[in-house]
Amino acid sequence: MTLERIEKIEVDATAAIETAPGTAELEELRVRFLGRKAELTTILRGIAELPEAERAEVGAGANRVRKELESLLARRAAELDAAELESQLSSDTIDVTLPGAPARPAGHLHLITRTTRQIEDVMAGLGYRVIEGPEIEHDYYNFTALNHPPGHPARMLQDTFYVVPPGSSAPAPSRKSDRDAQSLPRSEPGGSVWVPDLLLRTHTSPVQVRAMEAQPPPIFVIVPGKVYRRDSDATHSPMFHQVEGLAIAEGITLADLQGTLEQMLRALFGAERQIRMRPHFFPFTEPSVEFDVSCFQCHGTGELSGGERCNLCKGQGWIEVGGAGMVDPNVLGFVEASGYDPERVQGFAFGMGVERMAMLRHGVPDLRRFFDNDVRMLEQFS
Predict the structure, then answer these.
(1) 350 has which bridge partners?
(2) Are strands 129-130 and 219-228 parallel, antiparallel or unpaired?
(3) How far apart are CA 195 and CA 189, in angstroms?
(4) From CA 364, how far away is CA 176, in angstroms rounded?
(5) Beta carbons of 131 and 221 less than 8 angstroms apart
(6) Domain ranges of the chain
(7) Using an 8 Å Cβ cutoff, are 216 and 339 in contact?
(8) Cα–Cα dist 126/307, whole Å
(9) Angle in degrees, CA 16, 21, 27, rounded to 5
(10) Cα 49 from chain centroid (whole Å)
């Protein structure tokens, strides 16, 4: 009778365990069939009270069933754990690409980039093409082809950083010896006399020469990009951004330059802005001018509403913006083989600092704030 009962427990327990729907129900079955108060446990505890002839057979059968049920419970538990984990992963999927809580605000373009693109948009609307060029430039393109021959004093106004080619032990010329070094005859690096040919460009004008070499007239381009000079204070940086423009065709005059500058500056500073051009000197333009825009704080009067002197234009009513002029025939002579005959075509060039334009438009007092990466300052222009 006892053996039959053990077999019945085995059949019932096996069927119940194999069909258990979850881990909670499986735990209840474990307690029911193998717990301290389970029938099988009671049989094992009462073996000593059985007749001696039945003890071995009943004990062996009860232990066999107990071990099989324990093994079956372990297998079923593993199956249920895996199924429940899979179900939980499917229902509780987390998209790790979603923003955190609270969501971080979206970023925005740096003010220098935004100002550059605004200038590009205005000039593109006037028919100009945006081009770029190398920041490490040859002396020829940076100076010589722009009417700065070796020894020209104008080179001293654009002290820059020279690049020593690999394999050369010669140092770049010092600040005091720049002009003298440019007058020396050239030789290979490592020779008795070495004058550096590679430098960090001091303006984006070298790209204008490269563009004329690659394309015959007419040409209308603007050149944005980084430039480098050895200056560092509240209004100057060793690295800054420039946008320069070039227009070469037949019949272009200084009046076309004035109209182009008016259109651009009014788009940037307001439709009521006026511009003026003052005589100046640049080696690569003749005649040369500096151009100003009427002050947008005092509206060109030089005084604020309370009668105080305007602090932005220093009471002048005008704000200096950049330099320009008619391209010097000597510059066109360097690209005459590309179709730029000084007797047939002429044009103008202009340039301005992007940082200065951004400072004027947004009232930033110190150019260095653009490069400090202080989020408190940058977030003001989102």
Answers:
(1) 245, 324
(2) parallel
(3) 8
(4) 34
(5) yes
(6) 2-91, 111-160+201-381
(7) yes
(8) 39
(9) 65
(10) 86
Residue spans of alpha helices (H) in the chain: 2-18, 23-34, 39-45, 52-91, 111-125, 139-142, 178-182, 205-214, 254-269, 329-334, 354-362, 375-378
Give CA–CA dist 160/182, Å, rounded: 13
pLDDT (tens digit per residue) in 215-259: 999 999 999 999 998 776 665 678 889 999 999 999 999 999 999
pLDDT tens by residue, 39-48: 888 888 887 7
CA distance 241 to 225: 5
Please list the residues that pair with 225 across neighbouring strands: 242
Element (H, E) at 321: strand 318-327
- pTM for the predicted model, two decimal places: 0.64
Cβ density class 180-201: b for 16+ within 10 Å, e for less? ebbeeeeeeeeeeebbbebbbb
Alpha helices (H) along 92-234: 111-125, 139-142, 178-182, 205-214
Q: What angle do the packed helices 2-18 and 52-91 form, to 10 degrees?
A: 10
Asked, as a colleague might, if the bond just before 102 is cis with ω within 30 of 0, I would say yes
Which phi and psi angles does 137 have, rounded to 5°? -120, 160
Task: Give the CATH fold of the 111-160+201-381 domain.
Answer: BirA Bifunctional Protein; domain 2 (3.30.930)
